[in-house]
Write a structure and sequence with these properties.
- With 528 residues, this protein is α/β, with parallel strands linked by helices.
- It folds into three domains: 154 residues, no CATH class; 217 residues, Mur-like, catalytic domain (UDP-N-acetylmuramoyl-L-alanine:D-glutamate ligase); 126 residues, Mur ligase, C-terminal domain (Protein-Tyrosine Phosphatase, Chain A, Alpha-Beta Complex), CATH 3.90.190.20.
- The chain has 20 helices and 15 strands.
- The strands form two sheets. The chain has a nine-stranded mixed beta sheet with strand order 2-3-1-4-5-6-7-8-9, sandwiched between helices.
- β7 and β8 form a beta hairpin.
- The chain starts with a helix and ends in a 10-residue tail after the last strand.
- The model has no long low-confidence stretch (mean pLDDT 87).
């Protein structure tokens, strides 16, 4: 028995490292929602399955050894595996570490129980080499074992989820004075949410979902842990990566007001078609009550041409489609210091107010217009709107201008959609000085991925002096787009991790250069 247990000392150490990594990836892939984690395993098959552990297939060769001999060889094998993965993980740049939430702790417990069950079988066959082989195989397929644990835990998670959801629903009922504002779209949701929050708080007590809490679980946490009786408005960011997910969120929090930013091709891979994306995004507007208000973008043809199925009041905002717009912006001046523009209110005899903001980019003008439109409808006067827009703070990782050594960093790391990337490059193009782009490309664009990333490469070539790409395979289409525009190959540098790109910049930088950090993808897209 002692020999048997002793043979798994390094096995246990290796199990901890590997399970932590598997759970981190499962967590980043939304606990396999829409089979996202399994698709990731398939996409990175070589990285996940062609590893040093494949030598476990040689374990049956140890059958001729006695128990003590097996102990030595098993420990040597897993000692090597442990050192290998430890050094590998130490070199990796972890952008989003594993968060030991209640759900992860329960998954960890179930995973351990599955391994203990396998060990229990081993106690029946103490010195059988096939037991070692079976347990080695279990550890080799650890990233699939956590999927099994996730499936086994599903009833428990469903029960816990219902408990907290009912608690949140009851809390919202108790706050009868509270009015809910939903914000959705293919992109711009978080920026729009934060801008509206800053504008409304000039007069009211508004609370917005923190960070990227835009799922049912995120809304539950926000309501149960943050919302209080003094809040007048609850601004709920609503995300979706498949059909009917916005409807689910609307049925939960019942928004009275809604903002639809812009509709694009984000998550096309999981939605299946752009028609599904349009339908799902409009679920917010079509869920609003008759006395509610929807804010739509007149410059988005997909919104203008949609046949709305309810009669909620609509306020149209825009910059280009002035004829359709109720509230529109012109006389726009963009610079590295921020933006100024005139805002026209057609319903108020074309009243004009001139707004100033620290925010960069045309995309943010749309988000500000949406906040102005809804703020005006909710009773904010001219002075309150002007002050609110002026006080709006830059949103972290979304066209956020920072000083970086003796250079400038335009941090747009959370942006990974075609229109947002284009607008960020337009902002970079305004800057005076050497222009550098760091990008790992756009994701979840389905069959349009190569086409759109190729177009991104062409656009980058028109603006940038140097391009730092993260991931050779991930950025293949961008490389082709750059070459299509005859971008000099010596000015294209490819790295495995974004950390390496910044090390390179520190060694090879130019004073007052502008660096656009675009689409810094999570750890699941690391190629090594």
């Amino acid at each position: 028995m002692k020999f048997y247990i002793g043979s798994f000392i390094f096995y246990s150490f290796y199990f901890i490292l590997k399970t932590n990594k598997s759970l981190q990836m499962l967590q980043q892939n939304r606990y396999n929602r829409g089979n996202k984690y399994l698709k990731w395993l398939k996409s990175y098959f070589k990285k996940n399955f062609i590893t040093i552990e494949l030598f476990f297939l040689l374990l049956p060769v140890f059958a001729f050894l006695n128990v003590f001999g097996r102990l030595i060889l098993i420990n040597i094998f897993y000692c090597i595996c442990f050192i290998h993965i430890y050094l590998k993980q130490k070199k990796e740049t972890t952008k989003i570490p594993l968060k030991f939430t209640g759900r992860i702790k329960r998954l960890y417990t179930t995973t351990i129980l599955l391994y203990l069950l396998a060990c229990g079988i081993g106690f029946l066959f103490k010195d059988s080499i096939w037991v070692y082989f079976f347990l080695a195989m279990l550890l080799y397929f650890n990233n699939l074992v956590v999927v099994l644990a996730n499936i086994l835990n599903a009833p428990i998670e469903h029960s816990i989820n219902n408990h907290f959801k009912n608690k949140a629903i009851q809390k919202l009922k108790n706050f009868s004075h509270l009015q809910v504002i939903g914000i959705t779209g293919s992109y711009g949701k978080t920026s729009s949410k934060n801008i509206l929050h800053d504008v409304l708080n000039v007069k009211y007590n508004a609370f917005a979902t923190p960070k990227n809490y835009n799922t049912p679980t995120g809304l539950m946490i926000t309501i149960n842990e943050y919302l209080d009786k003094f809040n007048d408005y609850f601004i709920a960011e609503m995300g979706a990566c498949k059909n009917n997910e916005i409807q689910e969120l609307c049925d939960f929090v019942h928004p009275k007001y809604g903002i639809l930013t812009k509709i694009g091709v984000a998550h096309l891979e999981t939605f299946g078609s752009q028609e599904n994306i349009i339908k799902t995004k409009f679920e917010l507007i079509e869920s609003l009550p008759k006395d509610g208000i929807g804010i739509l973008n007149a410059d988005d043809p997909l919104q203008v041409n949609y046949n709305l199925k309810n009669k909620v009041r609509i306020i149209w905002i825009g910059i280009e489609n002035i004829a359709q717009s109720t509230i529109y912006a012109d006389n726009i001046h963009l610079s590295k210091e921020g933006t100024t523009f005139d805002c026209h209110f057609k319903a108020e005899n074309d009243k004009v107010l001139t707004f100033t903001t620290k925010l960069l980019g045309k995309a943010n003008i749309y988000n500000i217009l949406a906040a102005i439109a809804l703020g005006r409808a909710l009773g904010l006067n001219d002075e309150e709107l002007l002050l609110g827009v002026k006080k709006v703070k830059p949103v972290e990782h979304r066209l956020q201008l920072k000083k970086y050594h003796d250079m400038y960093l335009i941090d747009d790391a959370y942006n990974a959609n075609p229109e947002g990337c284009k607008m960020a490059l337009d902002v970079l193009n305004l800057m005076k000085g050497k222009k550098i782009v760091i990008t790992s490309g756009m994701i979840e664009l389905g069959e349009k991925s190569d086409e759109l990333n190729h177009a991104l490469g062409e656009k980058i070539a028109e603006v940038a002096d140097k391009v730092l790409l993260i991931g050779e395979q991930q950025t293949k289409s961008i490389q082709n787009g750059l070459k299509q525009k005859n971008f000099k190959e010596k000015n294209i540098v490819i790295f495995n991790h974004i950390k390496d790109a910044f090390v390179y910049l520190e060694k090879n930088h130019e004073k007052d250069a502008y660096i656009l950090l675009q689409s810094d993808l999570p750890d699941t897209f690391n190629e090594r």
